[in-house]
């Protein structure tokens, strides 16, 4: 989404800032190619390089229906992952959230929980959305817990939706409404 690249949001744990092609370094590209990180991400079916990732970040910045943000950990003092609201559906007041904490040493510190809570505020207060949605593999316990701690509830299960490591896995659908 085309907004002032200096715009940022923060709480005690994270600072969210507009992601630009300059943020695309070896660390970020490495997260996308790390099998432990991408285990539950659809991006795992491709091998990523710097040029392709920078082009993707640029396209997100130009997109009127996506806000793509870098997550900075305040405790670690660095960029540890990304979070996106998009696609945004203005007709229905909807926004889909996806995230990746790519730096494995940043896991289990409440960073996903606080990034989701911050992005929910942006979605409701700044973008005027009515409902935020997300989905995770049923096995992705950390993701589900983080969304639930950030005020999301499970609104459905799509049975045997994915093929993961040669077996079928459910998709858990989560949502949070603006007046929560
Ligand atoms: C899943 C993910 C978002 C969790 O991020 P995080 O910053 O570690 O999450 P939080 O610290 O806010 O953790 C929420 C809770 O889940 C727990 N948790 C995290 N990973 C877990 C796992 N693999 N199994 C069980 N619990 C887990 C955390 O310990 C924490 O609980 P606690 O406070 O009682 O210890 C992160 O590991 C990640 O981005 N993974 C790779 C990409 C991905 O799966 N993205 C989500 C797609 S829907």
Residues in helices, as a percent range: 25-40%
- What's the CATH first level of the domain at 8-129? Alpha Beta
Molecular shape? globular
Helix and strand content put the structural class at alpha+beta
Strand order of the biggest β-sheet: 1-2-3-4-5-6-8-7
CATH third-tier fold name of the domain at 8-129: Aminopeptidase
Beta strand count: 8
Your description of this structure?
The structure is a single chain. The chain is of the alpha+beta class. The protein is 26% helix and 36% strand. It is built from four helices and eight strands. It has helices spanning 26-33, 50-62, 111-126, 141-149; strands spanning 8-10, 14-18, 67-73, 78-89, 94-101, 131-137, 153-164, 167-177. Helix 3 packs across helix 4. The model has no long low-confidence stretch (mean pLDDT 96). The chain binds coenzyme A (COA). Coenzyme A (COA) is lined by residues 37, 40-41, 81, 99-101, 107-113, 136, 140-143, 145-146.
Keywords for this structure?
180 residues; Aminopeptidase; alpha+beta; eight-stranded mixed sheet; 4 helices; 26% helix; globular; binds coenzyme A
Task: Give the arrangement of secondary structure elements.
Elements lengths: L7 E3 L3 E5 L7 H8 L16 H13 L4 E7 L4 E12 L4 E8 L9 H16 L4 E7 L3 H9 L3 E12 L2 E11 L3
Helix pairs in contact: 3-4
Bound molecules: coenzyme A.
Provide a compact summary of the structure:
26% of the residues lie in helices and 36% in strands. It is an alpha+beta fold and 180 residues long. It binds coenzyme A.
């Amino acid at each position: 989404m085309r907004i002032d690249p200096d715009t940022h949001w923060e709480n005690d744990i994270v600072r969210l800032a507009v992601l630009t092609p300059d943020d695309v370094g070896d660390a970020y590209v490495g997260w996308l190619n790390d099998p432990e990180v991408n285990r539950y991400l659809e991006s795992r079916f491709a091998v990523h390089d710097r040029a392709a990732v920078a082009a993707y970040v640029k396209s997100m910045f130009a997109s009127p229906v996506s806000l793509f943000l870098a997550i900075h950990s305040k405790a670690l003092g660095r960029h540890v992952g990304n979070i996106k609201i998009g696609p945004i559906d203005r007709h229905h007041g909807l926004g889909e959230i996806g995230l990746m904490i790519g730096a494995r040493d940043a896991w289990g510190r409440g960073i996903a929980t606080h990034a989701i809570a911050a992005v929910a505020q942006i979605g409701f207060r700044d973008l005027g959305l009515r409902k935020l949605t997300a989905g995770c593999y049923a096995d992705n316990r950390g993701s589900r817990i983080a969304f639930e701690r950030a005020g999301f509830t499970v609104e459905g299960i799509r049975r045997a939706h994915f093929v993961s490591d040669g077996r079928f896995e459910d998709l858990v659908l989560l949502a949070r409404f603006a007046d929560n």
